[in-house]
C-alpha cells in the first residue's frame, strides 16, 4: 500500500483499475483518498442484475462492471425482490451524494427489475452525470421519458427504443407511436452511435420519422418481434430508402445483434440477412434465437472480412449447427481473425449412450486419463449410478431408466452454465433457480429407488463436468489449431479461455475449473497471436 501511495494519482487510478469489485469495495474503506479513487471505477459501469453473477477462478471476467451481489434462490420472485432492494439503496445513495453520479459512464438496465426504480435511477444520472454516455437495455417507454429533456441527455451516444409492451402484442397503446416520433425527433442525431430497436428499421425510418442523411451508427441491436402496428406504418412512403444500406451508412457499422422473439419458423424478410451482408466492415455479429438459414447466414459471414467476434444461437428446427453446412464452413473461412466464438454443435462423443440393438445402456470413457477412466467411469458411473449389471438393461420401452441415469443430458437441460451475451465483455449470469446442490438433489431423488444407487455430491459434479470437457477434444482441438487469434470460446454453452504456456495452448474452462487438467495441448507457432492479458477498466469508454 505504501508503494501505491507514492505514485501519482493518475498511476494509482490506473493500477486499481485491474482490481475486482470486491477488492475495490475493501479499498474504499481504507481511507478517504482510496475511497475517492475506488469510487471512480465502482460507479463507472453499472450492471443491474436480478440474478447471481458467477465469477471465474481462472480469469477476471468483465472487470470493468459493477453489479449487485446476489445469491441463487429457487423461491419465485425472491431474486427480483432482493435486487430491487439493492437498486433502491443505490438510488438513495446517489440522491444523497449526487457527485457519485458524475463517475457513471454506462449502465445496463434489466427487464425484471422495478421500472419506476430504474426510471428514478436514470433520472438522477441524466441530471447529474456529464460523463454518462450509454444507457443500454431500456425496457420501458417510461425510462425514455426520464431521459428526454434532462440536463445531460444530449451527451448520450446510445438510443434505445423500447417495445410498446413487455411481450409481443396485437394491441399497441394509442400514445406509443406519437411518443416514439416525438422522442426520435428530439434525440436522433449524428452523435448517436449505438441504436437498439424493436421495430423494423426500414419501417421506422420511413413511416415514423424521416431522416435526411444516413445514420452513422457503429452498433445496432435489433429485436425481431410480432408486434402489430397500425396499418399505415406498413405502407412504405419513401421508395428511395428501400433497404438498410439506404438508411444506415455501411462504412461505420461494426456491431450487429439480432434477437428473435418468434416462437415459430421465421421468414428471412424479418432478419434481412442479405441486406446486412452489404455492411462489409462488421467486426462483431450476434444472432440469438434466430431461425437457421444456411445459405443466407453463411453469405452474411463470408461478406464480413474484418469479423473478430461471432455468437450464433439458433432455435426451432435446428438447435445445433450442422458440421457439413455452409455456416460452419463460413466460420472456418473467418478463422484467421476471430478472437471470440460462441457456437452450438452436436457433440461427437457421449459418455452415456444407448445400444438399441441390445437394449442396453453403454458407458464409455472419452480418454485413458485417471479422471475419465477411473474416477468418472469406474467410480461414479459403475459404483454409484449403475452399480449392478442389471442396471444397464432397458426393460421399459419408454426409456425412462435411460433418461433418469443420463446425467449429461440432464445437465445440458439445466441452467447451471452461466450465461453472457459475451463472456469477456459482460458479467456471466446464473439464469436459473438451481445451484449445484439443487441439481444434484433432483438427480439423486429421481434415482434413489434403484437398488445400490449412491447419491452424488459436489465433488462428483466437478469430476463429471471436467470429464465432459475431455469428451470435447475432437471438437476443441481443431478449433484451437486453426483459429490462431482465438481468445475466448463458448462451445455448447460451456465457456473457455485460451491459455498459453511456452509454445502450447489449451482451452481452460472458465467455470467449475478447480483442479482441471487438459487432455490435449496445441502447438502455438506464434504466441503473440493468443494474448490473454486481463483488460483493465480504463480500456472502456475512452
From TrEMBL:
It comes from the Eukaryota. Residues 1-46 form the F-box domain. SUPFAM superfamilies: F-box domain. InterPro entries: F-box-like_dom_sf, F-box_dom. This is CYFA0S04e05754g1_1. It comes from Cyberlindnera fabianii. The lineage of its organism: Eukaryota, Fungi, Dikarya, Ascomycota, Saccharomycotina.
Amino acid at each position: 500500500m505504501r508503494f501505491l501511495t507514492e505514485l501519482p494519482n493518475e498511476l494509482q487510478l490506473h493500477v486499481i483499475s485491474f482490481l475486482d469489485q470486491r477488492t475495490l469495495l475493501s479499498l474504499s474503506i481504507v481511507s478517504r483518498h482510496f475511497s475517492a479513487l475506488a469510487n471512480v471505477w465502482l460507479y463507472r459501469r453499472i450492471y443491474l442484475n436480478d440474478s447471481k453473477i458467477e465469477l471465474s477462478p481462472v480469469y477476471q471476467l468483465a472487470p470493468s462492471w459493477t453489479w449487485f451481489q446476489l445469491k441463487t434462490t429457487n423461491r419465485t420472485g425472491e431474486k427480483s425482490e432482493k435486487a430491487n432492494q439493492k437498486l433502491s439503496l443505490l438510488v438513495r445513495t446517489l440522491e444523497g451524494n449526487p457527485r457519485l453520479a458524475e463517475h457513471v459512464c454506462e449502465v445496463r438496465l434489466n427487464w425484471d427489475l422495478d421500472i419506476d426504480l430504474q426510471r428514478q435511477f436514470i433520472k438522477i444520472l441524466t441530471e447529474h452525470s456529464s460523463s454518462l454516455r450509454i444507457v443500454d437495455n431500456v425496457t420501458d417507454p417510461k425510462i425514455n421519458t426520464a431521459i428526454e429533456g434532462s440536463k445531460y441527455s444530449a451527451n448520450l451516444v446510445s438510443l434505445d427504443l423500447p417495445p410498446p409492451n413487455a411481450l409481443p402484442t396485437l394491441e399497441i397503446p394509442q400514445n406509443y407511436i406519437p411518443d416514439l416520433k416525438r422522442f426520435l425527433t428530439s434525440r436522433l442525431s449524428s452523435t448517436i452511435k449505438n441504436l437498439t430497436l424493436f421495430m423494423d428499421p426500414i419501417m421506422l425510418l420511413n413511416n415514423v420519422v424521416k431522416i435526411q442523411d444516413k445514420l452513422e451508427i457503429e452498433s445496432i441491436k435489433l429485436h425481431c418481434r410480432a408486434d402489430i402496428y397500425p396499418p399505415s406504418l406498413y405502407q412504405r412512403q419513401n421508395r428511395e430508402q428501400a433497404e438498410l444500406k439506404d438508411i444506415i451508412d455501411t462504412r461505420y457499422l461494426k456491431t450487429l445483434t439480432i434477437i428473435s422473439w418468434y416462437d415459430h419458423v421465421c421468414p428471412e424478410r424479418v432478419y434481412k440477412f442479405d441486406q446486412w451482408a452489404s455492411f462489409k466492415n462488421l467486426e462483431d455479429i450476434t444472432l440469438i434465437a434466430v431461425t437457421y438459414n444456411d445459405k443466407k447466414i453463411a453469405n452474411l459471414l463470408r461478406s464480413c472480412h474484418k469479423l473478430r467476434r461471432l455468437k450464433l444461437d439458433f432455435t426451432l428446427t435446428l438447435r445445433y449447427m450442422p458440421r457439413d453446412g455452409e455456416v460452419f464452413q463460413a466460420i472456418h473461412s473467418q478463422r484467421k481473425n476471430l478472437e471470440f466464438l460462441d457456437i452450438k454443435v452436436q457433440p461427437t462423443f457421449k459418455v452415456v449412450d444407448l445400444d438399441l440393438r441390445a437394449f442396453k445402456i453403454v458407458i464409455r470413457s472419452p480418454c485413458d486419463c485417471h479422471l475419465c477412466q477411473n474416477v468418472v467411469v469406474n467410480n461414479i458411473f459403475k459404483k454409484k449410478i449403475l452399480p449392478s449389471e442389471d442396471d444397464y438393461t432397458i426393460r421399459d420401452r419408454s426409456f425412462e431408466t435411460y433418461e433418469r441415469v443420463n446425467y449429461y443430458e440432464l445437465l445440458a437441460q439445466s441452467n447451471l452454465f452461466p450465461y453472457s451475451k459475451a463472456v469477456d465483455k459482460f458479467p456471466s449470469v446464473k439464469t436459473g433457480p438451481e445451484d449445484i446442490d439443487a441439481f444434484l438433489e433432483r438427480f439423486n431423488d429421481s434415482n434413489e429407488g434403484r437398488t445400490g444407487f449412491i447419491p452424488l455430491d459436489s465433488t462428483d459434479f466437478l469430476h463429471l463436468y471436467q470429464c465432459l470437457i475431455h469428451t470435447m477434444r475432437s471438437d476443441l482441438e481443431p478449433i484451437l489449431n486453426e483459429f490462431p487469434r482465438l481468445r475466448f470460446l463458448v462451445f455448447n454453452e460451456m465457456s473457455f479461455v485460451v491459455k498459453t504456456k511456452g509454445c502450447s495452448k489449451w482451452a481452460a474452462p472458465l467455470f467449475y475449473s478447480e483442479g482441471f487438467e487438459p487432455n490435449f495441448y496445441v502447438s502455438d507457432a506464434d504466441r503473440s497471436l493468443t494474448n490473454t492479458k486481463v483488460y483493465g477498466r480504463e480500456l472502456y469508454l475512452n
